[in-house]
Write a sequence for this structure.
């Protein structure tokens, strides 16, 4: 939903800019982004194993060479967001001084949660801790009590404060730039103060093109993983073959549902679908809690929360410099890169639905509430 909303926002802003300049030309951002996406898609479709090997080598090179930077950046997002929220700037309202939130807090939180995490938690909420338990870093014995504690703490880390802080920083900047400064609802609006003399149309277009390509990469990863999850579930439950034809059908159905939701607008499709998803998630969680090992769940939650908070700084900055860092690169650094790739369009969606809230409400609502 969030990625489609981003496309709608960009289209509206391009139309506004065209009217302001009395030009009917198609935006170069749109044209170049579409061409670049088609080229990448064709390379992936026709390149086969060669493209896969190239992309994997590129990903491994970036993760290995810049993993330390991802660790610092994600921690910096958390620190920055909380410092802004707890400072005097926390009282600034995202909009006119007398404006109030468009959506109720429950509806707002439901849209935040569904846009930010979505299908990932449904699958990885179970699959990830089991994977860490059976294949932890080399310093931890697999399938041991230590591995179980590590598995839960790592899962809390990957789906906790850091990803939401990345969304919050981008979303807060966009909301402030648009609702307070009247700038276009585009990613380039974030960097206008930093550009200085370099603030030119060509530079802004380059920023927006890069954001669009990053959006495609993030959506492709999420859509691909979600498609494989659904296909595997259909094969397990109904015997439907887990093959390319099934994947295509699933992707088409998902795109149709997302498109209908986005076209109907935030107040109708997105809001209602998010609220429905949130209700299903709460009912599902409550059912598991009541029918499952309730006491064990409570003990695991309190223990893991304590371990997560106690070791937050160490885990956030631990680059595994001595020994094998395969686990770190395959999981934590991959997650941090994934969340950052998601941040432009999720941040824009969060900004759009947060008009009227104070900076403090925004940060605490985006970073703390969904993580808990």
């Amino acid at each position: 939903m969030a990625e489609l909303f981003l496309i709608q926002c960009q289209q509206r802003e391009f139309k506004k800019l065209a009217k302001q300049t009395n030009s009917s030309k198609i935006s170069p951002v749109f044209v170049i982004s579409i061409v670049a996406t088609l080229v990448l898609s064709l390379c992936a479709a026709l390149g086969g194993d060669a493209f896969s090997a190239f992309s994997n080598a590129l990903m491994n090179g970036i993760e290995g060479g810049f993993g330390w930077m991802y660790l610092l950046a994600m921690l910096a997002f958390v620190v920055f967001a909380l410092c802004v929220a707890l400072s005097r700037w926390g009282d600034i309202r995202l909009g006119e001084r007398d404006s109030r939130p468009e959506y109720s807090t429950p509806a707002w939180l439901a849209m935040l949660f569904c846009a930010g995490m979505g299908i990932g938690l449904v699958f990885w909420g179970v699959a990830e801790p089991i994977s860490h338990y059976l294949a932890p870093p080399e310093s931890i014995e697999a399938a041991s009590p230590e591995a179980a504690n590590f598995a839960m703490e790592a899962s809390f880390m990957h789906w906790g404060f850091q990803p939401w802080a990345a969304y919050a920083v981008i979303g807060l900047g966009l909301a402030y730039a648009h609702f307070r400064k009247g700038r276009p609802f585009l990613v380039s609006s974030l960097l206008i103060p930093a550009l200085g003399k370099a603030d030119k149309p060509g530079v802004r277009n380059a920023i927006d093109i890069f954001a669009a390509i990053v959006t495609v990469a993030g959506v492709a990863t999420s859509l691909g993983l979600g498609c494989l999850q659904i296909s595997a579930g259909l094969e397990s439950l109904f015997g439907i073959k887990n093959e390319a034809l099934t994947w295509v059908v699933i992707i088409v159905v998902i795109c149709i549902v997302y498109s209908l939701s986005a076209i109907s607008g935030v107040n109708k499709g997105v809001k209602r679908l998010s609220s429905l998803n949130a209700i299903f998630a709460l009912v599902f969680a409550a059912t598991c809690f009541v029918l499952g090992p309730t006491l064990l769940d409570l003990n695991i939650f309190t223990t893991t929360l304590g371990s997560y908070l106690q070791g937050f700084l160490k885990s956030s900055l631990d680059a595994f410099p001595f020994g094998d860092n395969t686990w770190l690169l395959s999981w934590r650094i991959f997650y941090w890169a994934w969340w950052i790739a998601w941040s432009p369009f999720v941040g824009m969606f969060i900004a759009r639905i947060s008009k009227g809230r104070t900076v403090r409400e925004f940060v605490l609502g985006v970073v703390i509430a969904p993580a808990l």
The chain has a mean pLDDT of 87.
